[in-house]
Specification:
Elements lengths: L26 E5 L11 E4 L5 H14 L4 E7 L3 H14 L4 E18 L7 E16 L7 H4 L2 H8 L3 H22 L8 H4 L1 H24 L3 H30 L6 H4 L1 H20 L1
Parallel strand pairs: 2-3
Antiparallel strand pairs: 1-4, 3-5, 4-5
Keywords: Membrane, Nucleus, Transmembrane, Transmembrane helix, tRNA processing
Protein name: Transmembrane protein
Subcellular location: Nucleus, Nucleolus
Amino acid sequence: MDHQNQPIKKQKNNKPEHQKRFFSENHSFKKRPTSKPYQRKEDIYVTNKSNFKAQINQCETILNTENTNEIFLHCVGNAISRGINLALTLVANSNNGLGYEANTSFIELIDDFHPLHDDEDFTLQKRLNSCLHIRIYRHSKNIINFAKMFKLSELVKWLGLSEFEIFTNLLTLWIFTMLLSIRLGGYLPDLDWFGIFSPLFCSDLSNGYFCVIVGIRMFLNNDNRRKSFNRFFWSLKFLILTVVFKYLLCRKLSGEQNLDYFEVFAPLFVLLQLIAVRACQLSNAN
C-alpha cells in the first residue's frame, strides 16, 4: 500500500492544558480574603484599595520612629504595580538613605461559589496568583559615601590642589599604609619612622616642584598675576603645614622629642581652618 495516500494523523499535544475557571449562572461568586502569613510590624500589605499617601506615612513612621531599619511590602496580582510605586516613592523621598530589593513568589487563592438554587452544590475553586515582596532597608549610618558627598571639581577648588597632586598624595598614602602595616607586623623591625614616612615626604617634594613650575608658567603666560600669586602661596602654605605635621609626628613616634599630641597636630588644625575659610569664600563667590 502506498504510504503517500495515507491520511496524516495529527499528533496530540502532551502539554498540560490550563485548568479553566469555574463559571456558572447558578452560583454567586465570592473571593476569600488573601492570607497574610507575615504579621510583624515591619510587614505592610498593599492592595488596590489602600490609601497611597496613608501607606507612605505609615512606612516612614515605622522607619523613623520604630527601632527597625527595614520594612517589607507585600502585594498580590494587580496590586504589584502599586507596591512598586510605593517602594520607589519611599526611596526617592529618602535622599538616597534607603535601598530596596525584591523577590517574587506565588500564592494560592480560593474562590467560593455559593449555589443560588437548592439543587446546586457548593463549589470551591483554587488558583495561583503572583506575589511581590519588596524589602526596603536603611543604609548603614557608619558608611559614608564620600564620592556622593563631594565631586572632584569641588575638592580641587576647596583644597587648592590639582588632580595630579591629589593622585600623588593618594598613591604615596597607600604606600605609607603598606609600610606601616609591615612595620607593625614585625617584618621590618629596623625600619625607623622616618623611613615609613619617606613616601609622604617624597610626595611633598614632588608636589612642591610641580607647584613651582606651574606657578612660574602661570606668572609668565597669564595676565592675571594676582591669581597666580594666590595659587602659588596657597600651595606653599599647604605644603609647609603638612610637612611640619609629618615631621613632628615622626619625632614624636620615634621618641626623639617629647611633644604633646596637641602640638603635633597644631599645623593640621591650622590647615583645616584655612581650608574652611577658603571653602566659604568660594561658596560666596559662586
